[in-house]
Amino acid sequence: PAANLHRTSSVQVGGGSFRRSISSEGDEGRFVSVRRLLDSVPMHVLFALTTAYALFSHDIYFLSQPWPGGDYPLFTCTFAVAVLFTIELCVRAVVEKGYFNSYIFWL
User: Fold this and answer.
1) Which residues are CB-contacts of 102 (< 8 A; sequence separation ≥ 6)?
2) pLDDT at 49
3) Residue 75 and residue 77: Cα distance in Å, rounded?
4) What is the pTM of this model?
5) Which helix (H) or strand (E) holds 82?
6) HSE-up of 46 (CA within 13 Å, CB side)?
7) Contact at 8 Å (CB) between 103 and 18?
8) 15, 38, 70, 91: which could join 66 in a potential S-S bond, CB 3.0 to 4.6 Å?
9) Measured in whole angstroms, how far is the alpha carbon of residue 18 from the centre of its chain?
10) Of residues 4 and 60, which shows the higher confidence score?
């Protein structure tokens, strides 16, 4: 039955693993759908692409010798990526027990 649903997932980080448990009992069951959304493949792809953008966009920008006024698209995209990262950080801190101030939080 529904009260006994319990799922454990683990994520490999470096040499260790980060384990978390998702249950539908009590207080932890309130955000199961949000956790599933955050752990879905499209969200992982989105944040992989935004991470790649954050890492390499500035270098590509300087290599391409942008046109005058070309700063605004870069700054707009960079601001949007920063907002996405902040939203994800805040939502995970609220939804996942033990996430705030953990190793993954600071990573």
Assistant:
1) 18
2) 95
3) 6
4) 0.64
5) helix 71-95
6) 12
7) yes
8) 70
9) 15
10) 60
